[in-house]
Design goal:
The complex is a heterodimer of chains A (407) and B (236). Chain A has 407 residues and is α+β, with helices and mostly antiparallel strands. Chain A has 13 helices and ten strands. Chain A folds into two domains: 183 residues, no CATH class; 178 residues, no CATH class. In chain A, strand 6 and strand 7 form a beta hairpin. The longest helix of chain B is centred in the C-terminal third of the chain and has 18 residues. The chains are: A alpha+beta (407), B alpha/beta (236).
Chain lengths: 407, 236
């Protein structure tokens, strides 16, 4: 049987019952499109999370007081709650460790804030001027905490845009205005630009004040909540981490790393961790969509079995006029492969379109990966062959005498 | 040339054995027009399946053009059917969603005849069965029963078979169109020299052939030449 004849036969077969063909193909279209959309959503959220982590600064090391994380090591002190890091540690790091751009010691806690008769509970962070640089904070209006304000223990604050919007109203000019924090009056000197980070630990809902001011009026101690270190080059992260660890162990007179009263977190570790979480999410979404693809494949098999039964006499005739098993098998196998191929092409187009629409109208971030396109396309081709094989074999093995008599 | 030597066909095994054909032998020469006649259940259909290379006999030999067909495998039988046999069925068995021309060309697909020759061969076959040209592009379910059967005959002709097997070709037709179809067979036999075997249970149908082989209960009970004057009468 010539290829062109095969194509002509298949064309006749699939156009003879357009509604049924259409519905069967629809099953595959939905399966393929949902695989592509789901994986695009998974990849998109992974990308979004990574971008929001990177907006904090990807060359960032964070040192927090408290024991090293250990698994099954009994009760653990909450991170940042222990009192072991001081400004002197921060200064020592800045002076003693190479390859770092800036060091930002911070101390923070929750405080009651009152402004314009509005009341809010917010995280208040004592910072130095270097904090803005280390944590990629940009100023929208006014200026950030300066070294002079820090050394003078000025009662000034820089607030996040969400705090301003909540307490004063959206986009009100608040520079120069007063706010009360923990019973003391502070002057607002700047508002940070929104970073768009959401949820837990958003940098848009923070109040910054000079570290010295914070330590004097609020924490009442010399201890820090964390030290952020920005490393100049990404590939020096590990080296810087080791140097800082060695320096602090020496300063705290601790001999073993296991007993360290601080821990260092690497931004890359966090990205890796979230990547693995979102990767699992992507796989889960893909698997759910994959189920619909399998259901679509069963639809193909169902249709092909019906077709074989319906066309039993035709198969008998074809055999009587000289078709051999291979001719018949080929015809039905190609027929199902054609259906899934069509479903695959339409499904991929539809999937990319839906992913684009979701992204374009900011419903959710999506990113169509070439991998998912290739994957779903080969899966659909495989489905055509796997689910088409059984009906095709059944057709090929029909006894021509019985097939011709079939009513 | 068809040679059947003590052909038997037994279905089932043990106590459920049914003997459909018992030791049937005959020879059909090239260019003969033979009717195989018998009541239903006589074994004539089984004989047709064996002659048509759709089935193997349980014992005995069947030679078609000198080849022993009785020992061939399923795929080898399909080659014999493709090259040497043309079938005409009671129920026509045309593809309903294909045109007349396409139906006639169908066997050429499996014969891998070059595309540019197919149409010519099919048109020649359609002219041979006297189907008017205005019907050629109709779908096969849009034409009358008599026309359908002539399309089926044309389809049986395109591979230039050694043997045309017609299984109750007039069973679904009224007498008048049936006679026209039978006349078509006889003309093909007379003018083109095709070897034709007609399977029927009716005497009147068998009378169109030159020779009648009667099968009953699996046995060949009669093998006679039809009287010339009777044949002539039907032609007029």
């Amino acid at each position: 049987m010539l290829m062109s004849d095969l194509v002509a036969e298949i064309h006749m077969a699939i156009t003879s019952n357009k509604v049924r063909t259409g519905l069967t193909v629809l099953g595959i279209v939905i399966g393929i499109a949902s695989v592509i959309v789901m994986i695009a959503i998974g990849n998109g959220s992974q990308k979004a999370i990574q971008e929001s982590i990177q907006s904090i600064g990807s060359n960032l090391l964070t040192i927090q007081p408290g024991k090293q994380r250990s698994f099954g090591g009994g009760p653990q002190q909450g991170m940042g709650s222990a009192e072991s890091l001081t400004r002197d540690d921060a200064t020592a790091i800045a002076q003693g460790v190479g390859g770092i751009t800036a060091v930002a010691p911070t101390a923070s806690g929750n405080q009651q804030i009152i402004a314009e008769g509005n009341n809010a509970q917010s995280s208040v962070t004592g910072v130095t001027a270097a904090y803005a640089q280390v944590n990629n904070i940009t100023i929208d209006v006014g200026s950030f905490i300066s070294d002079v304000q820090e050394s003078k223990r000025s009662k000034v604050v820089v607030i996040g845009p969400d705090i301003r919007d909540d307490l004063y109203g959206e986009n009100v000019d608040v520079v120069g205005q007063k706010m009360r924090i923990g019973g003391l009056s502070f002057t607002i000197v700047g508002v940070t630009k929104s970073k768009g980070g959401t949820g837990f630990g958003s940098s848009d809902e923070v109040v910054y004040m000079p570290l010295s001011t914070y330590q004097q009026y609020f924490s009442g101690s010399e201890y820090l909540s964390s030290i952020s270190v920005s490393v100049t080059e990404q590939d020096q992260m590990t080296q810087a981490e080791e140097d800082i660890e060695a320096l602090l162990l020496k300063r705290h007179k601790i001999s073993s790393v296991d007993d360290a009263d601080f821990n260092i977190r690497n931004q890359a570790d966090i990205i890796e961790m979230t990547s693995s979480i979102t990767g699992t999410l992507t796989m889960l979404l893909g698997a759910v969509a994959g189920i619909s693809l399998v259901v679509g494949g069963i639809g193909i098999m169902n249709m092909m079995l019906t077709t074989v039964t319906e066309r039993t006499r035709e198969i008998g005739l074809r055999k009587a006029i000289g078709a051999n098993q291979k001719d018949i098998r080929q015809q039905f196998l190609f027929e199902s492969a054609t259906l899934t191929f069509m479903g695959g092409v339409i499904g991929i187009t539809l999937g990319i379109f839906i992913a684009f629409v979701l992204d374009h109208f900011a419903i959710t971030t999506t990113q169509v990966s070439g991998f998912s396109v290739i994957l779903s396309f080969s899966v659909s081709a495989a489905i055509g062959i796997i689910f088409g094989y059984y009906p095709a074999r059944r057709a090929a093995r029909l006894n021509p005498i019985q097939a011709l008599r079939y009513e | 040339m068809i040679v059947c030597k003590s052909i038997s066909k037994v279905y089932g095994s043990g106590d459920n054995q049914t003997v459909a054909l018992d030791n049937v032998s005959f020879v059909i020469k090239e260019g003969e027009f033979v009717a195989i006649m018998g009541p239903s259940g006589s074994g004539k259909s089984t004989l047709m399946h064996i002659l048509g290379a759709l089935d193997n006999p349980t014992s005995g030999s069947y030679y078609l053009d000198g080849h022993d067909v009785s020992i061939l495998s399923e795929d080898e039988l399909s080659v014999i059917r493709k090259e040497k046999i043309g079938f005409v069925f009671q129920a026509f068995n045309l593809l309903p969603r294909a045109t007349v021309l396409r139906n006639v060309m169908l066997p050429l697909i499996y014969g891998e005849v070059p595309k540019d020759q197919r149409k010519k061969i099919a048109e020649e076959a359609l002219r041979a069965v006297q189907l008017t040209e205005d019907r050629w592009d109709h779908y096969s379910n849009e034409i009358s029963g008599g026309q359908m059967q002539r399309v089926a005959i044309a389809r049986a002709l395109v591979n230039d078979p050694s043997l045309i097997l017609a299984d109750e070709p007039t069973g679904n037709l009224d007498t008048k169109t049936g006679d026209f179809v039978l006349d078509t067979f006889r003309r093909l036999n007379r003018e083109k020299g095709h070897t034709i075997v007609l399977i029927t249970h009716e005497d009147e149908v068998a009378a169109f052939a030159d020779r009648t082989i009667v099968i009953r209960d699996g046995h060949l009970v009669e093998d006679r030449q039809n009287r010339k004057e009777e044949v002539k009468k039907v032609i007029q």
